[in-house]
Amino acid sequence: AQKLAEFCGVKRMAVSYAGLKDRHALTTQWFSVQLPGKPTPDWQAFASQFLEGRDSAGKSEESISVIESVRHNRKLQRGALKGNRFRITMRELSDSSDQVFEQLQQRCEQIASSGVPNYFGDQRFGRAHSNLEQAEKMFQRRRNRLSKHKRGLYLSAARSWLFNRILSERVARGTWDKQIAGDAFMLDGSSACFKSDVQMGDTQADDTNAKEAHDELDDRLIRKDIHPTAVLWGEGNVMVSGEAKELEKSIIDQYEVLRDGLVAARVKAMRRACRVIPAGMRGARVEDNFVVSFELPAGSYASVVMAEIFSDLIEP
């Protein structure tokens, strides 16, 4: 983004992109540059600066190529993406036996069918969880001035940590992909949520209606039409009640500094799906390597999927 700004003679804020990509990877990504009333730059001239991984001064650089360019009347905004596609190759496996490759293949098929717990990846918390530590310091010393970027980073780390702890408890209870009393659900492929209104009544008719509603939710969960959710903590309505509310409260109350700090920061409570289903999930042996490809919605982590693929093969 900085190189684009320099090449186009604009301020850095005129260049934008929808989200970050992996640091060590071959990535494809859209950028937008605000150039109202100005001619389209020579993008191939821009790319030529990075031929064979070296800039115009001969200094080692990451290589860049321009695949496509179009004019558009809107600037890209952060978060304006549906998801990411991944193709990951595992090389030099410590065990490259036929049995291991077969297990990896079966695990990919299982994940394609059942999904994985939708944890935030460890990178969310910084090296050695430094972002989480800084969040605690920020909440305990509220007068400290921080840049908008750092403040957002630390708030996100705090909320993500609480979500992961709640999800971890649901995984331990075997309910990360099942409903519990008072749950809230998210529609697949959407951020829209709704609260379960299933309640046992005082009459047989009420109980029958409640059972039918309960069974309908179970059916929708099996079809992957909806997913259970956990709170992204903050002020306001957390949507859940009953067992779901008690579970979330029991976890959040263990982290008073994060709990109170997020509310004091006026962060609004939201929901996040406990389950994510990688689309187009495939795993295949290529010589002595194992290649995995899949798609994830924005906000879900490939590192979490990869950890789940290998989880059954790693000795405790």
How much helix, percentage-wise, in residues?
A: 25-40%
Q: What does the largest sheet look like? A: 4 strands, antiparallel
SSE run: HEEHEHEHHEEHEHHEEEEH
Given helix and strand content, the structural type is: alpha+beta
Number of separate strands: 11
Number of helices: 9
Give the spatial strand order of the biggest sheet: 6-5-7-8
Low-confidence stretches: none
Distance between the termini: 43 Å
Q: What general outline do the C-alpha atoms trace?
A: globular
Radius of gyration: 23 Å
Question: Residue-averaged pLDDT, rounded?
Answer: 90
Described by its quaternary structure, the protein is single chain
Strand coverage percent: 15-25%
What layout of secondary structure does this protein have?
Blueprint: H1 2-8, E1 15-17, E2 31-33, H2 43-48, E3 83-90, H3 98-114, E4 116-117, H4 130-140, H5 148-173, E5 184-187, E6 193-195, H6 204-222, E7 226-232, H7 242-252, H8 256-264, E8 270-273, E9 275-276, E10 279-286, E11 289-297, H9 302-311
Antiparallel strand pairs: 1-2, 3-11, 4-9, 5-6, 5-7, 7-8, 10-11
Helix pairs in contact: 3-9, 4-5, 4-8, 5-7
